[in-house]
Amino acid sequence: MTLAVVHRLTIPEPATHLVHVETRVTSKVGHLPDEFVLFMAVWTPGSYLIREYSRHVEGFAAEAPARATKTRKNAWRIRTAGSERAIVRYRVYAGELTVRTSHVDASHAFLVGAGLFLGVEGQENLGARIEIDAPDGWLATTSLAPARGAGQSGVLSFEAPDFDTLVDSPIELGPHRLERFEAHGKPHRLAICPPGAINDADAKKLVSDAKTIVETQAKLLGTGLPYEAYELLLHVSAHGRGGLEHRSSAALIVPPSSFETREAYLDLLSLVAHEVFHAWNVKRIRPAGLTPYRYGEECYTRLLWWFEGGTSYYDWRTLALARLCSVQEYLDHLAGEIAYVEQTPGRHLHALEEASYDAWIKLYRPDENLANSSVSYYRKGEVVCALLDIELRARTAGRATLDRVLSHLWVEFGAPQRAVPEDALQAVFERVAGVPLGDLFETWVRGTGDIDYARTLAHVGLSVERAARPDAAGCSLGLRVRAESGRTIVTSVVRASAAWRAGFDSGDEIIAIGGARVEGTNIDGTLRGRAPDERVDIVSVHNTRLVTRSVALDPPRPDRVKIVFSPEASDGAREAFRAWLGHEPPPGASA
């Protein structure tokens, strides 16, 4: 089939959250085939959940003489009646502002290709022209290339060489603020929505820091930038925090408080660094399990611990190398990730490789038992990659590093556009290092045992200290709760804790502990003065019934981790620290 596809978008009433789509399929030579199938993706790369985008489609119809028949939840058979073109029209409801869903209102339109455009089944390499009849005064920012040839006056026109690019190129429409900068010789644009969300000083600083991030990563990999131009589509919104990588752009959403504190701003910068780093790691250096993308079903890989966890390691490490954060701030962050791992019982049940494979049913479908049954491949993956970097340096006298592993992956797989085999990472690491690393992969990646952080961190003069929070009680219960309309509601119960053994459930309401009324989330306040193994009566509501349980309390759980540089560290450890983070080590104080 030699076909041409044009998608025309109109938004006649933005306040209704509806995008009107017309898709025209024509034959470049003669008549269309008697029939073909149009499909909509059920997920978008980078977000590993079946999102059922077609549930937002309404009013799907073909223009006569063509006829459309729905054959699957996300597919329609088009019978062409021997004509030279087929036209289908439908509307898409776009009412959710996230980085992986479209959102339209009177102020802007954020358009995600996976949930908007149709592809021709079996013709995923087919290109498409996109025409957008936008409201007056709205501009478009996207990594899609402007279409060749004159289009209709007032219509924005773009083109995609294939369906992958169409899905992978979100579009921001509206009166957003547009900042430009050049990094490593390539043009970059930062679209800020809404346009008044960031003041001039903050916008200027963000542009400067984003430029520093891009240049630091390009220097780190030594490859130059893998794209010709790059777009950062930033939404400042109370709807959450997150990012989604694309081949030549990234969608970001952050809360308005992102510029109010140092901690919040570093979180924003780490998000920028994370998504930009993905331009190499996962968008071009890509696992076989995600190659090619299969848009109608899950695509499984056991390597997300590297492609997401490794990227998480490099986002904060980029900030440290670029001196956008201090060495102390970096070590505080790493300590927080170690604390998360140690407070997640699921680490003893779910290995990193398996957590990666189960992303579709675990991390992206969280419930009250997730922390008990799994572990985040982002967060444990970040910790493991930090430790792998230090071990590589230690075992090879600094000759091999994670940076060199990354460069090798680029040369062997990224640049020639070859998929990374699912079983190749350990061999790649060992090839770069020239030493066996099976013990690390078996324990940290494929195993579920506890990690000896201290042994590896000692190579760079660091040690780990653990303690309970200063305001914590001298005992623990193992309940995680939230305040809801003046009530204390259990959100999860820690595996093997006192509350677990006593039979508490998610959704229970905690009324009183030891005769004292529980206020909000202040469980610790009612436990102060009590000791481990002491029994205490807890009154709760379970399935509308009042229940009193006698519970034997646990010892306090050390939920704080500090990373400390030893003043007695050897000169070799100090030099290894400098090589690792590009900073002098902290002066023998708590990090």
Give the fraction of residues assigned to helices.
Answer: 25-40%
Structural class of the helix and strand makeup?
alpha+beta
Order of strands, main sheet, comes to 4-7-2-1-12-15-14
Count of helix runs: 16
The main sheet comes to:
7 strands, mixed
Give the terminus-to-terminus CA distance.
63 Å
Mean pLDDT: 96
- Gross morphology: globular
Give your account of this protein's structure.
With 591 residues, the chain is α+β, with helices and mostly antiparallel strands. β9 (101-105) and β10 (108-111) form a beta hairpin. α3 (262-277) packs across α5 (309-321), α5 (309-321) packs across α9 and α6 (327-342) packs across α9 (379-395). The longest helix has 22 residues, at 200-221. The N and C termini lie far apart (63 Å). The model has no long low-confidence stretch (mean pLDDT 96).
Annotate the secondary structure layout.
Elements: E1 3-10, E2 18-27, E3 35-39, E4 57-62, E5 67-72, E6 75-79, E7 85-93, E8 95-98, E9 101-105, E10 108-111, E11 119-120, E12 128-133, E13 139-142, E14 145-146, E15 156-160, H1 163-167, E16 171-174, E17 177-183, E18 186-193, H2 200-221, E19 230-236, E20 242-245, E21 249-254, H3 262-277, H4 304-307, H5 309-321, H6 327-342, H7 352-357, H8 370-373, H9 379-395, H10 402-414, H11 425-433, H12 438-445, H13 453-457, E22 462-467, E23 479-484, E24 487-493, H14 498-502, E25 509-513, E26 516-517, H15 523-527, E27 535-542, E28 545-552, E29 560-565, H16 571-581
Parallel strand pairs: 1-12, 18-19, 19-21
Antiparallel strand pairs: 1-2, 2-7, 3-6, 3-11, 4-7, 5-6, 8-9, 9-10, 10-16, 12-15, 13-16, 14-15, 17-18, 20-21, 22-29, 23-24, 24-25, 25-26, 25-27, 27-28
Helix pairs in contact: 2-3, 3-5, 5-6, 5-9, 6-9, 10-11
